[in-house]
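Question: I have long wanted to understand how a fold can be written as tokens. Here is the record:
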Amino acid sequence: MPLDRRTALGLVGSGLAGGLLWDAATSAVTADAGGPDRRPEATREAVEAYAHGNAGFGLDLLAELAAAAPETNRMVSPLSVSASLAMTWAGARGETASEIRETLRFPHGRPELHRAVGALHHELGRRADDVPRFEGYRLWETNRFELRLANALWGQSGFPFAEPFLETVERYYGGGLRTADFEGDPEGARRQVNDWAASRTAGRIDDLLPEGSITRMTRFVLANAVYLLADWDRQFDPEETDDEQFTAIDGRSRQVRMMEQTDEFRAVFDREAGYRAVELPYVGGDLAMVFVMPFRRETPFREFEAAVDGAWLTDRFAELDAAGERETVVRIPRFEFETGTRLNGPLRELGMVSAFDKVDANFDGVVADGSDRQLYISHVFHLGEVVSAPPTFAADRPFLFCVRDRPTDAVLFLGRVVDAAAAAINSG
């Protein structure tokens, strides 16, 4: 589903898999999960500290991706990437563990961090189940809300995994271990992981791991999927969608389909701070998409987004909460796009170096005592898809967006649209 008048996110689904390999080779294992069955003991402060740090990591990662392709639309799920690497961190030791923690801005040590991640995932899942379902009162309205969070662990059959590592992944992430045959049938194992991702994202992400990413040397794969299908709480009338101009980051203006509505929204127009922001809630009210752009049209977007970090975004959330709802005209383009990338390079640039090195990587906490197996991360893949007189918020030029959980400030998805025409939905 695209981002359109009725469905806010047909899918801003994303998945990540990090394959840990040791430098000799053998076979494989599969793990499947949907988050912890019971909420791990974690304070609200611990969960919010993790959420704020994770938002900062997400912006760091988005900045690396934007620097590599400044004129390209991008989207990441900090929640997804962080969950997979937090599971990996459970088995990391020494400098490797320190680099992962610093790169991902983990505010806690073990096991506090695992408790916070597990508690957040459990809370998001529980509140999603509590969203009431009913039909809209206008013919073109629906009331859909589906949020899925799933973790999976694959390891080599017969591989000497350390019991404490497996217990941590299962207890806090809901990941139980299954076997697969990486050594004997790497392509079949790759399909297994991709089938899992497809099943957790309603078929929207079915190629998480590209060809050649699983080899006979693969011993360990961790994956996470976040899937959101949700309608706007206040939906756009299809009669109010028109062709309008969008000025891309390169300065060119092109025609796109633009939705419009006037309603009560949380919105801030701060000339002094130099930004405009509006928050559009989804059905249920806890999740919302926040759009942010420079206050002045003349402000270079690259300059604006370079100044956006986790603390800045958290402050904007607080200002939106304090502002309350006001009558606002909202115009946003209908857009959808898919982004898939190997995150090894960006993560290295952010300081997570030794985990990818065959010699220096230290994942001794993954293997049982006495084993001489040497593990390192070979690939980290991430694939996401966005489907898409009073003061006016007109997103007719580059903007940032994120999906925010209002109660915890957790950022599920984060992205930039710098060329709406390249992601346009032209029908309807």
